[in-house]
Amino acid sequence: MIVGTGGTNDYNQKTTIQLTIPAGITVVEAGIRVAVTGHTGCVIRNTANNKQWALVTNRNVQAGDIERFYIGVTPLKTYTLFFDCNQGSMAMFNWSDDINRITPNVQDY
């Protein structure tokens, strides 16, 4: 069950947002929805330390696929994230008790 989303969840250009992690949340799921088969690119990174949270590049992905990345985070911390998503791809954040139990791919505490 999704218990929250961070900020506006559609990014189709270069932009920066702030994401505040709710109390009790230690893992965030960053999902990137691919809009165009084989012709997409999307990167999400923390501007404070350049830690890359997610990356989807031109490879064997199909339109409509969602690539999921799990990031270890600090509860109540505010992250400033840079997005560079093209070809109509979208990025979204989810968190829940179930997601908290997943081992993160990236640690950004």
Outline the low-pLDDT stretches: 1-11
Number of alpha- plus pi-helical segments: 1
Q: What is the H/E string?
A: EEEEEEEHE
Q: Name the helicity range.
A: under 10%
Distance between the termini: 24 Å
**What is the structural class?**
mainly beta
Radius of gyration: 13 Å
**In this structure, how is the largest beta sheet organized?**
4 strands, antiparallel
What average pLDDT do the residues reach?
80
Inertia-based shape: globular
Beta fraction of the residues? 35-45%
Q: In what order do the strands lie side by side in the largest sheet?
A: 1-6-3-4
Number of strands: 8
Question: What's a concise summary of this model?
Answer:
The protein has one helix spanning about 95-100; strands at about 15-20, 25-35, 40-45, 50-55, 65-70, 80-85, 90-95, 105.
